[in-house]
Amino acid sequence: MASSSSAVPFLFPETNSTILPNPSKFFSPHLLSSPLPTNSFFQNCTLKKGDQPEFIHPYLIQASQTSLSICHPSRVATPSFIYQKFVPNITISSHCKTKKNHVISSYSDLSVTLDYPPNLQFFLVRGSPYVTCSVASKTPISISAGHDIRSVSPTGSHKKHTIKLDNGQTWLLYSSSRINLMRSGNRLTSDGFCGVVRLAILPDPRFETILDRFSSCYPVSGDAAFRKPFCLEYKWETKGLRHLLLLAHPLHLQLLSSDDCDVEVLDKLIYESMDGVDNKSIPELVSALITDVEGGLTEFVDGRNQESTSEAVNAYYSAALLGLSYGDMELVAISSTIAAMEIQAAQTWWHIKEGSGRQYEHEFSKQSRVVGVLWANKRDSGLWFAPPDWRECRVGIQVLPLSITEVLFSDLVFARELVKWVSPALATEKWKGFAYALEGLYNKESALQKIRSLKKYDDGNSRTNLLWWIHSRN
Questions:
Q1: CA distance 350 to 358
Q2: What DSSP string runs through 288-332?
Q3: 8 A C-beta contact, residue 238 and residue 214
Q4: Within the chain, which residue ranges are assigned CATH 2.70.98.30?
Q5: Where in the numbering of this chain does the Glycosyl hydrolase family 81 N-terminal domain appear (predicted)?
Q6: Where are the beta strands (DSSP E) in 242-290?
Q7: Is CATH 2.70.98.30 what the domain over 29-223 is classified as, yes or no?
Q8: Which residue, among 131, 220, 120, 200, has the nearest Cα to 160 in the 3D structure?
Q9: Between the CA atoms of 51, 55, 61 and 62, what dihedral angle is there, to the nearest 10 degrees?
């Protein structure tokens, strides 16, 4: 509630922290006048040394002071998790020696541009099968491999090179003009080059003609826009010639509408991969803030992560209800759209159906019906607060709070699978209620008997809440 003695909202004073990692050194000066992102897909490039890998689909990239390393990772599956290990397959740098950090000169919803003074600029766009580097003036560049180079084969124009490594990978290098590469061990060096260089892994020889065809058009930025109700548009700024090639993951393919978007799906190209406060409350808040800023921004080896899909769904569902209360139809439309997308994302990435085999290896999926924490570069069966074998917590964190749960778990066959999977592990009394709530979607009487026997409930849940839930189902 706002203070009655002042109409001016309280603002925490600006301060310089000696504790937090300061990301500003990794951003171009013209970006510092605006708030900087604190949970972006490129966060690891801005914290501490800025050299933890990030997954941008389909590549893991690692930004060091003078170079950018690219990895097309292989997946490792165990009963507890699925992850991708970073190995620097290809590293690009220039011969110009500098003590300056890489700098973010621009960023958007789906892209980030990394500058390496004085001449290299990388356009890193999520979902691009190519990594694109612009060389501003004639500069000798270096391309090194983390494995032995078996062969380098240029075309007659020297605008395309095929690089084969002894780990079985084949990389295609495209250049906007002739580039002369000289090989020395596992390093390729060029004389002065000016223009655009693009690198793409060739996962299958059949894809080469497709990669050749789209190599001349490259994206420099990408935004997600809500331009009309219940519709999300991806807008790309491109340079070069012809059409843009980007990769879509399975959820994109579900959402693509052939009626209102000019997209051609190439089935043969597949890549593995918190208002105002009373002034009397201010000192306590400031004291708490000083303590809190020390759990600041954190880099993670496996990138950003999400645990509870149901909390995300309910955040946007609540925003839609707020829009209905205030008569703000734009807020209703946007929030409903995002809530629907969160639901589909949860059903695609977190819900592991028996025998589906669509997303995850059998080694992982045979013992899991739901993902615990989904990282940019890892699928984990454990939770932030619980080990993998606490199945009731893994289910509960994807169910709470009970609201539009029956939409999130609209597949009743899967809901039954999930309850069957978690039932033998129902040891913690307060978490049992969420499993029984799921059972109530398809067997009210059985769920009701179990709920009546409960003695403890998780925060935000209660006997009344569960009884309301069961009795209000169809």
A1: 12
A2: HHHHHT-------TT--EE--HHHHHHHHHHHHHHHHHHT-HHHH
A3: no
A4: 29-223
A5: 33-276
A6: none
A7: yes
A8: 200
A9: 10
The pLDDT of residue 95: 74
385 - beta bridge partners? none
Confidence of residue 316 (pLDDT cuts 50, 70, 90): very high
Q: Which pair of tokens denotes residue 257?
A: 């509408």
Which range, of 49-53, 259-263, 306-310, 313-317, averages the lowest pLDDT?
Answer: 259-263
Residue with tokens 């925003």: 319
CB 126 within 8 A of CB 110: yes
| Contact by Cβ (8 Å): 219, 238 | yes
Whether the Cβ atoms of residue 203 and residue 272 lie closer than 8 Å to each other: yes
Give strand pairing partners of 197: 133, 175
Classify residue 227 as exposed, middle or buried by CB count within 10 Å of its CB (0-12, 13-18, 19+): exposed
Do residues 140 and 94 touch, judged by C-beta distance below 8 A?
yes
Of the listed ranges 232-241, 253-262, 329-338, 411-420, the one predicted with least confidence: 253-262
Residue type, 466: L
Q: Do residues 188 and 144 touch, judged by C-beta distance below 8 A?
A: yes
What pairing do the DSSP bridges indicate for beta strands 67-71 and 75-77? unpaired
Residue 231: which of 337, 315, 316 has the closest Cα? 337
The pLDDT score that the predictor gives to residue 29 is 92
Contact of 87 with 77, CB cutoff 8 Å: no
SS3 percent helix, strand, coil of the chain, rounded to 5, is 30, 25, 45
User: What is the per-residue pLDDT for 227?
Assistant: 84
105-120 residue pLDDT tens: 999 999 999 999 888 9
Helix (H, G, I), strand (E, B) or coil at 6: coil
Is 470 within 8 Å of 445 (Cβ atoms)?
no
